[in-house]
Amino acid sequence: MPDVSFRFDQIPRFARAMRFASEPVLVSKTAGALIRMGRADIEKMKTEQLSGGRLNVRFKGFRNSFKSKLLPQGKAQKIDQLQLSEYTGAKPFGIFQTGGIISPSRRKVLTVLAPGGRNAAGRRKFPAKDSLDSIRAKIKSGELVVIQTRGGAVVATPQFKATKRGTMRRTNKVTVVAFLRPSVNEKQRIDFFGNFEANASEHERILGEAADAAIVETVERE
Known about the structure:
This protein is α+β, with helices and mostly antiparallel strands.
């Protein structure tokens, strides 16, 4: 995750504040600005990348794992000690950030859930740890069927309808719940680092306001 520090003397409004504002006031205002910047970046990430076309995340746990914090945790004495950290503990983050080939580690195929394998809230109908075992059990009981297609095998729920005699007959329609694949080429879905860069204008606005506020407060205290 990006840990971001700034050359504050390269920011015009900050260069002015570093000359005219007291250091304790400027450090305090800057710390608050970095906190607001981190929140703005994470909100932009959730709105534009986790809820849009790139990666439409329904599970709140994944979305809420993206966070920001100000370092150091204690009170900084100088501006160059301040650092903004934006991070996530989400396990799938790496492959979504870079893209790449996903292959099974212990089995011959990957179980890739289709929309029919999730409920209306986006949660899995089959536990992640034993999805293949759970699917196999349902195939054996007849609840699910395996269909071979040109793209590979799919697991589906057969649909039935009642006949005039009152018996249930299987139709040709199915609901696909999963794809069985030897590997999956996952494309890049999100760009955490690009998200920070794309929010540069908001960073400049927040930092500029903090620098101006530090000068005003310094003058008022004198």
